[in-house]
Specification:
118 residues, alpha+beta, five-stranded mixed β-sheet, 5 strands
């Protein structure tokens, strides 16, 4: 398993992304819109329009990998009024974001408890 500290940067793409895009489409966004090297030791974070899904893209020297998280309730807190197209966060902020915190306001998601799928 990779450690977050092994990445030299964790970048958020501020604008919402069409989640039909996969590795190739997201890689193009990194290079063309974000102006970053997709082959560097970076994590790139993308959020869908409803802010209920998150994709993380990275290059691991042998190929691309992509993580995907879907929230069952609530939404990811994504920057809206940010001047920069690309936002750099640290490993702690990334963990907070995945844990449901608004890293700009530090408010967590409410916990969801289910007993079964169907």
């Amino acid at each position: 398993m990779l450690k977050l500290e092994s990445f030299t940067g964790i970048y958020l793409h501020r604008d919402r992304v069409d989640f039909r895009k996969s590795i190739d489409g997201l890689s193009a966004i990194v290079e063309q819109e974000m102006g970053l090297n997709v082959f560097g030791s970076h994590l790139f974070l993308f959020c869908n329009k409803n802010r209920t899904r998150l994709k993380v893209l990275y290059w691991d020297a042998t190929g691309f990998a992509m993580w995907y998280k879907r929230l069952e309730q609530d939404r990811f807190r994504w920057p809206r009024n940010h001047d920069d197209e690309v936002i750099l966060i640290d490993a702690q902020q990334f963990e907070w974001l995945l844990g449901g915190y608004d890293i700009w306001k530090m408010k967590p998601h409410e916990k969801v408890n289910y007993s079964r799928i169907s």
